[in-house]
TrEMBL record:
Cofactor binding, note field: Binds 1 [4Fe-4S] cluster. The cluster is coordinated with 3 cysteines and an exchangeable S-adenosyl-L-methionine.
Protein name: 7-carboxy-7-deazaguanine synthase
Cofactor: Mg(2+); [4Fe-4S] cluster; S-adenosyl-L-methionine
Domain of life where this protein originates: Bacteria
Species assigned in the record: Roseiconus lacunae
Positions that bind substrate: 3-5, 18, 63
Catalytic activity: 6-carboxy-5,6,7,8-tetrahydropterin + H(+) = 7-carboxy-7-carbaguanine + NH4(+)
Family, per entry: Belongs to the radical SAM superfamily. 7-carboxy-7-deazaguanine synthase family.
CDD domains: Radical_SAM
Length: 221
């Protein structure tokens, strides 16, 4: 049990399910234990549903790693819906699956997310070739009741690219969230000074990462 720290449902008590394993390798990934060096244990669907019910909250967040990768993700969503739970999926949006959810929290990965080609030649190439399949993202958005686009930003120069991706996805400015890259309050405060005015001048929403302010950058929060 935690609180949603990012985007339109910030502050909502939520049960988080984090799948391990990712098809991308963002250099800045804040959950390397679910991407670069995947760890974790196998949990049955029955157990997950049971735990979600026991958490006594209305909201469940599926994240990762990349939550659209596991074969059982559709069954998991269906069973959460049967329990009347609100399901948010946090995804980079690169996996083609006909999945339904209440809120698709889509975080398209910009060119600057690609890992260093000298240090990680294979992953750099794979990441670059996989990170932005606009047609797949459009289908995911069509299958969701609501959506938001959350961009991780490490430089103001990235706004041109963000506008282009948002345009290609026909996103309203109001559904675009600008989130600072960073895992400390100090880094987020520094970034905010530069990014907030730009965010507002584009009509986008600024997205702090409240979990870092509430809990610190701790696993399980
Ligand atoms: C760890 S990812 C898991 C879900 C999915 N793989 C994705 O990237 O959307 C969860 C969220 O954290 C964001 N994120 C990861 N590392 C970050 C960092 N260093 N700073 C800011 N946001 C970060 C991602 O963009 C995404 O919105
Ligand atoms: N509290 C909290 N809120 C979050 N919203 C999205 C998260 C994610 O890692 O996907 C996240 C997370 O890791 N923690
Ligand atoms: S897509 Fe998400 S989980 Fe995968 S490496 Fe990037 S931030 Fe991490
Ligand atoms: Mg997180």
């Amino acid at each position: 049990m935690s609180r949603q720290g990012e985007g339109k449902l910030t502050g909502m008590n939520s049960f988080f399910i984090r799948t391990s394993g990712c098809n991308l390798r963002c250099w800045f990934c804040d959950t390397p234990y679910a991407s670069w060096s995947p760890t974790g244990k196998t949990v049955s669907l029955d157990q997950l549903i049971n735990d979600a019910i026991q958490a006594k909250v209305d909201h469940v967040v599926l994240t990762g790693g990349e939550p659209l990768l596991p074969a059982a993700i559709e069954s998991l969503c269906d069973r959460l819906f049967e329990e009347g739970l609100h399901v948010t999926i946090e995804t980079a949006g690169t996996i083609d699956k006909p999945i339904a959810c209440d809120l698709l929290s889509l975080s398209p990965k910009l060119a600057g997310s690609t890992p260093d080609p000298d240090q990680h030649p294979r992953w750099s190439e794979l990441h670059q070739s996989r990170r932005l399949p606009i047609d797949i993202m459009r289908r995911l958005i069509d299958g969701a009741k609501d959506y938001q686009l959350k961009f991780v930003v490490s430089s103001p120069d990235q706004f041109t690219e963000i506008c282009s991706v948002a345009d290609q996805l026909d996103a309203a400015a109001d559904d675009v969230f600008i989130m600072p890259e960073g895992v400390t309050t100090e880094a987020m405060d520094r970034a905010q000074m530069q990014l907030r005015p730009l965010t507002e001048s584009h009509g986008f929403q600024y997205c702090d990462r409240m979990q870092i302010r509430w809990y610190g950058n701790r696993r399980g929060t």
